Amino acid sequence: MIYHDEISNCTLRNKIKNAEICLGGNRKLKIYGTLKCASGKRMKRENRVFFLSENEARKKGFRPCGHCMKTEYQNWKNGLI
Fold first, then answer.
1. The whole model's pTM is what?
2. pLDDT tens, 49-81?
3. Distance from C-alpha of 75 to C-alpha of 81, rounded to nearest angstrom
């Protein structure tokens, strides 16, 4: 897990470009989603974290976003994840 307020913008862009980061999340709400999610783009920088994979996010106790990851969210909500 990478905290947005602990990484420079240049390093962040390089990690996204090199596919080292593929998901973003809100560390206070414990929600993760795609980097293109409108909900994720609105969150404060100090609350934003980044993940390499869904497994990493789940291991940290995060749940899928209901907006950009509807199928995964429904599976989580129904207790399938």
1. 0.89
2. 999 999 999 999 999 999 999 999 999 999 876
3. 6
Tokens of 54: 């869904």
Cα angle 65-70-72, degrees, rounded to a multiple of 5: 80
Q: How far apart are CA 11 and CA 3, in angstroms?
A: 12
pLDDT in tens, 22-57: 999 999 999 999 999 998 889 999 999 999 999 999
- Structure token digits, residue 65: 């976003």
Q: How far apart are CA 14 and CA 75, in angstroms?
A: 32
What burial class does residue 10 get, using C-beta atoms within 10 Å of its C-beta: 0-12 exposed, 13-18 middle, 19+ buried? Answer: exposed
Task: Write down how long the chain is.
Answer: 81
Cα–Cα distance measured from residue 62 to residue 73, given in angstroms and rounded to the nearest whole number: 11
